[in-house]
Write a structure and sequence with these properties.
By secondary structure, the protein is of the alpha/beta class. It has helices spanning 21-34, 52-61, 74-86, 108-119, 130-140, 153-167, 199-210, 225-241, 279-286, 299-310, 325-332, 355-360, 386-390; strands at 15-20, 39-44, 64-68, 91-93, 172-176, 193-194, 218-224, 246-252, 290-295, 315-321, 341-343, 365-368, 373-376, 396-398. The chain folds into three domains: 7-138, Rossmann fold (3-Layer(aba) Sandwich), CATH 3.40.50.920; 153-332, Thiamin diphosphate (ThDP)-binding fold, Pyr/PP domains (Rossmann fold); 341-398, Alpha-Beta Plaits. A hairpin with a 4-residue loop joins strand 12 (365-368) and strand 13. Helix 2 crosses helix 3 and helix 6 (153-167) crosses helix 10 (299-310). It starts with 14 loop residues before the first strand and ends with a strand. It binds iron/sulfur cluster (2 copies). Residues 343, 348-349, 353-356, 374, 391, 393, 395-396 line the site of one iron/sulfur cluster. The site of one iron/sulfur cluster has 14 residues, from helix 13.
């Protein structure tokens, strides 16, 4: 009952689009623009397992099927497989045939192009101003790399790891995985590997064993608290079992920030029916040669702790008490009233430095081109004060108020 099955699906239309999720909205919009009633849409909500009877009806009544979906060719492969098992045939097009791109995001224009190329329906042209307005809107976008939120302590962790790597002459490899902290990949390549949730400790576990065979690089794995509970514990136990020589850094910001602040077993809870599971106790129960705990807002201590732990042999864990600024300010509403952080132009070294904007790169720090000085965007700054430790010339300070 959840699937959007067009009445025409059983009436013998020649062409149909099969779609699900957000792609379905693009398909709906494209069909609306085309305005050809012989083209219909099967919008699937329950996609696993595929609704066999509906697909059977689809194959019986349509000679041409276009699959509109993002990521994998899941619907396309499933329907092709079902058609093969049922001995039914139709002309099927999608990612597998190159009719729509195999990667990247779907949009209405891609669907329209596929309809135009494939089904030979005379697509009504877009509004005359469409292209002009689209390229004007595109120019409004500011090109910038993906990065952390202002005041995110993950930035501090990678800043510290970069410093440590430099101290070690580059002899540091950081294996990570999926979460907000994946952005370390874009932070001057502070994260070297990133595959899937839990992959960081798995990769580091392997590299940490290779150090016994002569690998001289220091090995670090990075994961968030939610990922720790979700996917890291087997890899951690395995690394312990193999006596891997590594440092596992757990960024504990008490939430699943990347996907919408879902709680996890380690999240503080007021619910009497739930128990908060301590990451530290889990780690200690597995057995570590060394465990350190450090405040993610304290950059000098982060650098010293990472350096000391990473350069000590053994199976080590560092838990970083991190702060998700979005959670603090939007969800918990517990933001302290802090004194604003400013850049003192008289102390800022200008173009000869630029460390705060070009290397540390908090997005609340900007550059005054006319004066060649850094300044703080007060509407974005959360007042965390981390950048104060980053400026080597003490130009970033808290503004003293009465
Ligand atoms: S790090 Fe300090 S001195 Fe350097 S540009 Fe930024 S504010 Fe100026
Ligand atoms: S205090 Fe500094 S690091 Fe923190 S949000 Fe403001 S500009 Fe960014």
């Amino acid at each position: 009952p959840f699937n959007l099955v067009p009445s025409s699906a059983t009436e013998g239309d020649s062409a149909i689009i099969v779609s699900s999720g957000v792609s379905r909205l693009y398909a709906e919009e494209a069909i609306g623009i085309v305005g050809d009633r012989s083209l219909s849409l099967l919008g699937l909500v329950t996609i696993y397992p595929l609704p066999k009877t509906t697909i059977q009806s689809l194959l019986r009544n349509h000679s041409t099927i276009l699959f509109v979906e993002e990521v994998d060719a899941f619907l396309e492969d499933g329907v092709r497989g079902l058609a093969s098992i049922l001995g039914m045939q139709a002309r099927m097009f999608g990612k597998r045939t190159g009719t729509v791109p195999a990667w990247g995001e779907m949009n209405t224009d891609i669907v329209l192009q596929a309809i135009r190329d494939l089904i030979h329906i005379d697509v009504a042209p877009r509004d005359d101003d469409y292209e002009e307005e689209r390229s004007a809107a595109e120019k409004l976008l500011i090109p910038r790399p993906l990065t952390f939120c202002p005041g995110c302590t993950h930035r501090n962790v990678y800043w510290a790891l970069r410093k440590v790597k430099r101290r070690l002459g580059g002899a540091l490899i950081v294996a990570g995985d999926i979460g907000c902290y994946s952005l370390g990949v874009f932070y001057d390549h502070a994260m070297d590997t990133m595959q899937s949730m839990g992959s960081g400790i798995g990769v580091a576990g392997g590299l940490g064993v290779l150090t016994r065979l002569g690998l001289s690089t220091n090995v670090v794995a990075v994961a968030g608290d939610s990922t720790f509970f979700h996917a890291c514990i087997p890899g951690l136990i395995n690394a312990r079992h193999n006596n891997a020589n590594l440092t596992f850094i757990i960024l504990d910001n008490q939430t699943t920030a990347m996907t919408g602040f879902q709680p996890h077993p380690g999240t503080h809870t007021e619910d009497d029916g739930l128990a908060q599971v301590s990451i530290e106790e889990v780690v200690r129960s597995i057995g570590v040669d060394r465990l350190a705990r450090v405040d993610g807002t304290d950059i000098p201590t982060l650098i010293d702790t990472f350096h000391n732990v990473v350069t000590t042999d053994g199976f080590k864990v560092v838990i970083v008490d991190s702060i998700c600024q979005l959670r603090e300010r939007r969800i918990a509403g517990t933001a302290d009233e802090t004194q604003p952080v400013i850049v003192r132009p008289d102390l800022c070294k200008g173009d000869s430095c630029r460390i705060c904007v070009s290397q540390y790169s908090c997005t609340a720090l900007s550059w005054d081109r006319e004066r060649s000085k850094a300044f703080v965007l007060q509407d974005q700054c959360v007042g965390c004060g981390s950048c104060i430790d980053v400026c080597p010339h003490d130009a970033i300070q808290r503004r003293l108020t009465d």
